[in-house]
Amino acid sequence: MRRSKGSVLVALAIAGTISAVAYPVIYSYPNRNATAAAAAALTGDTVTTQWGPLTPADRDLIVRVRLAGLWELPAGQQALERASSQTVKEAADHLIVGHADLDKRVRIIAAKLGVELPNQPTAEQQGWLDQMTAAKTEADYNKTWANLLRAAHGKIFPAIATVRNTTRNTLVRQLASDANQTVLDHITILEGTGEVDFETIANNSVGGTASPTGPPPPEPGQVPPVAPAAEPSTNPDVKSKPSPTTPGLVPTGRPDPEELNGEQGEPQIQQ
Amino acid sequence: MRRLNGSLIAGLALVVTAGALAFPVWSYADRSGTGQANMAAGTVNTQWGPLTASDRDLIIRVRLAGLWELPAAEQAMQRSDSATVKEAADHLIVGHKDLDERVRTVANQLGVELPNQPNPQQQAWLQQMSNATDDQYDRTWANLLRSAHGKIFPAIGQVRNGTQNTLVRQLASDTNQTVLDHITFLEATGEVDFDAIANGTI
Known about the structure:
CATH superfamily of chain A: Ferritin, core subunit, four-helix bundle
Mean pLDDT of chain B: 89
Largest sheet of chain A: 2 strands, antiparallel
Helix content of chain B: over 70%
Oligomer: heterodimer
Radius of gyration of chain B: 23 Å
Number of helices of chain B: 8
Radius of gyration of chain A: 24 Å
Order of helices and strands of chain A: HHEEHHHHHHE
Number of domains of chain B: 2
CATH class of the largest domain in chain B: Mainly Alpha
Shape of chain B: extended
Strand order of the largest sheet of chain A: 1-2
CATH topology of chain A: Ferritin
Helix content of chain A: 55-70%
Number of domains of chain A: 1
Number of strands of chain A: 3
Structural class of chain A: mainly alpha
Largest sheet of chain B: 2 strands, antiparallel
Order of helices and strands of chain B: HHEEHHHHHH
Low-confidence stretches of chain B: none
Structural class of chain B: mainly alpha
């Protein structure tokens, strides 16, 4: 009896040891495939074009820019109709102008590179549109609208920068520059509504990295179906510019910052 | 007695084994569920909103960028014969002078201590530029600078998205504009090796 107790203990210890060894490898390490996926993104399904190699990460950006237009244009249009807040209307104006512009660019580039574009928002994006539509009160609507859009723009913003840095394709490089400018404009103007919950955005911005997968590569010699323009179905009165400046150019002529002076006083850290 | 010693050794061995097994789980910085805890741990409150470790990291990196890129650009103005390299150098000087003014104001307001010397890696890059022969100079210069700008660019985007601090938010927006401008002008020199940038070998 004593001996069998000992055996049970030993067996338990062995089982515990094995699972402890396996745990970090199998269960707890969420980014373990990231490196392999990144390498695959660079070489795996890369095709050669006259504008340079086109990687899955490049195609992923092209499709995401298209998808952004497909759900943000209706979202912007809805806000122009439903919201009475001036700042929400202004943000909606920027979304409509900016994404109509980006959509034009992305359709031209996708046609040249032979990338097939989606013509419907994803299920997730459709869910966001439904959430906006379902908002009952005006206050609830503004908050839901601004936060869903701000979260989506904030997620794509660093992804655009990564593609801008690493792409070897000249068309994708220019698209990434233009998208960077438009998305930063939208982030800024969405925050200008005063409705953005920064704490939630911050909490959702930490955590594991997504591995780039991207849609399948284009078939050589096959022209994908022409994607129709994503545009507002009505003709809303819009007047802002697609980007803070002329797309393709980046301004650095900002007004001078405040000089250091005594009035700014001591560092203000609250414990 | 002998038996006791044996048990003691076996016991110690078991403890060490269990500890060694637990260590990688404990030490894995990205282990799931700790991202928010890590963020909260390094955060201080300011009148402009919480200031996280990654906010401060951006502040320091913007400062460091100015510390090595200003001398790098000045050197190119003197050494390079290429008009496009000189133009890029012009942008680096104007851009980082502007950003440095901003970052110093922000750091002062937030109480963040700034370095006053480039870090050893940046000094090594400056040394590499200085040591480059005349026919290799433009290429060395443009690629070292393009690589550094490309690495910080997505990091700026992450901070711009995730920060809760209004001063850092504006700094990240301004830095995004300047860094994209510099990337674009460095590429326009025609010297950038895009394969090396994509492979991360610069």
